[in-house]
Amino acid sequence: MASYPVHFQVVRPERFTRLQLAIRVLAFVALGVLGISFGALFLAAYLGLPAFVASRLAGQRAAPAEPGDAPRLTRLLHWMAAVSAWTGLTAEHLPARSPEETVRFEIEGQTHPTPASALWRVLTGLPSALVLALLGCLGGLVWLWAALSVLLTERVGDGAHHYLEGLQRWSVRLLAYQASLVDEYPPFSFADAPPHLPPARVAP
């Protein structure tokens, strides 16, 4: 596939620990007790990012977005990607100081959205979101298989890792599009061909 301007890679660990798996499960249970699901969190970001961008743009006299918004949104998505990598069982731990510890994330180019174009993405992003939801259902089964593998061998197989990483890459690309950080529509693909990021190495 042609290179897409949003690049995402996980620094894959050599091994996963049963302790971190147990912490994930406890976190999932805690969120469940509060009535919060990851699907609901993603939906909130999917709807909230266009609304935020449109609100910021509508409050400005000039059409281009405030220079500080794009870097802040990019940083927010980077942290979200790092948390997603941990919950999604592709990274072993949550980053302590910076999301770069576990994931590489880059957005190329600039955009010049308007309030109308930002809000319109709530509708235009639906095809990608619906396909992502279907793939996410299968991803739940892949996650369970990966969790069982961690429980037994403290490893995640290549196929499971690539699927889960691809699922996370798709979601962060879609959210970057929703945040009007890119104009190109997210590709219906798990693949990545980053021209600037070095290949993700295996983390110790």
Molecular structure report:
The structure is a single chain. This protein is mainly alpha-helical and 204 residues long. The chain contains six helices and two strands; from the N terminus they run βαααβααα. The protein has helices at residues 18-33, 38-58, 69-87, 115-124, 126-153, 158-178, and strands at residues 6-10, 103-107. Strands 1-2 form a two-stranded antiparallel ribbon. Helix 2 (38-58) runs antiparallel to helix 4 (115-124) and helix 3 (69-87) packs antiparallel against helix 6. The two termini are 31 Å apart.
Layout of helices and strands:
Layout: E1 6-10, H1 18-33, H2 38-58, H3 69-87, E2 103-107, H4 115-124, H5 126-153, H6 158-178
Antiparallel strand pairs: 1-2
Helix pairs in contact: 2-4, 3-6, 5-6
Estimated radius of gyration: 17 Å
Structure summary, number of beta strands: 2
**Total number of domains:** 1
By DSSP (H or I, 4+ residues per run), the number of helices equals 6
**Could you list the spans in which at least 5 consecutive residues all have pLDDT below 50?**
62-67, 198-204
Average pLDDT reading? 88
Helix content: 55-70%
Kindly estimate the percentage of residues that lie in beta strands according to DSSP: under 5%
The largest sheet, given as strand count, sense and whether it forms a barrel, is: 2 strands, antiparallel
The end-to-end span amounts to 31 Å
Structural class: mainly alpha
Shape: globular
Strand order of the largest sheet: 1-2
